[in-house]
Amino acid sequence: MRVENWSSKLEDIVKETIRKDKFEYGKNDCITFTQQCVETITGKKIFEHKWKSLKDGKEVIKKLKKKDLLDIALYIARENNFQLVDISKVQRGDVLYYKSDYDLDGTLGICLGAVTMFNWHDGINLVKNNECKYAWRIE
Fold first, then answer.
1. Is the pTM of this model over 0.85?
2. Tens of pLDDT along 71-103?
3. Contact criterion met (CB below 8 Å) for 84 and 134
4. How many CB atoms lie within 10 A of CB 97?
5. Is pLDDT above 80 for 34?
6. Residues 46, 57: contact at Cβ < 8 Å?
């Protein structure tokens, strides 16, 4: 269940992330952005692991016996009962996965409406929802 005033809280995180100057693994990246949004929307902690570099991130994946970022996302979704939804049915605040050749073979972002915001190492990117591969309802 989403917390009261989740939409305005989400907007604050989006604005804060856009204002940040520098991409930094473990502090200002696609995972921390998405995690912070989901935790703000739901009011519960969803991921406890820390990383400071791409290498550290790959170690977390290995430690959890997962193969990539998508596998981690599927695991976290199952653990938190976030249901996979059809891309055409996503809503503001849902999590989407975009397949890419960057770093971990993909990235996670938050649906803002018709587009999803991703925090990549080359900056903030908005991608049309229908270009994404997976989506989870965040409740």
1. yes
2. 999 999 999 999 999 999 999 999 999 998 776
3. yes
4. 23
5. yes
6. no
What tokens were used for 104?
């971990």
* Gyration radius (Cα) of the chain, Å: 14
The answer to whether residues 69 and 23 touch, using CB atoms and an 8 Å cutoff, is no
Helices 6-19 and 30-42: crossing angle in degrees, nearest 10, is: 160
**Backbone torsions φ then ψ of 36, nearest 5 degrees:** -60, -40
Q: Which two tokens stand for residue 115?
A: 């587009």
Q: Given the structure tokens 């981690």, which residue do they identify?
A: 72
DSSP, collapsed to helix, strand or coil, labels residue 102 as coil
Query: Which amino acid, residue 64?
Result: L
Closest CA to 71 of 35, 99, 44: 99
The owner of tokens 């938190």 is 80
Q: Rounded distance, CA 68 to CA 62, Å?
A: 9
Q: How far apart are CA 69 and CA 49, in angstroms?
A: 13
